[in-house]
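Input sequence (120 aa), recorded before submission:
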Amino acid sequence: MRFVAAINAEADLKLVGEVDMGDSLEDALAHTKPVTVVDFTIPHSAMGNIETILRCGAVPIVGTTGLSPADIERVGALCAECNCGALIAPNFAIGAILMMRFAREGRAVYAGRRDRVDAS
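Predicted structure, token format:
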């Protein structure tokens, strides 16, 4: 997969594991203890994966296209419950490039109102 090759090519990123169909995501997360997990699946699988990832204490980065508004709402509720964020980027090609660039630069991107207390 090109994404794995891209991660391995970056000196400041470390790929700690890969999971495929039939593998236990929960076991892999428990063993590798990642900070973030990238999910490229289908909406039905992604929702279960997102919950597992959040409950294991990692941040899901989801490149799945087709999540419904109800799915997005559920992800928000899970994030609040687990006190953790998530990134859903259905058009992942550009999203992944920007995410890696901003992470490398140590930037935070805030897509909200500038007059909010938590805006920077």
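Checked by second reader. The chain has a mean pLDDT of 81.
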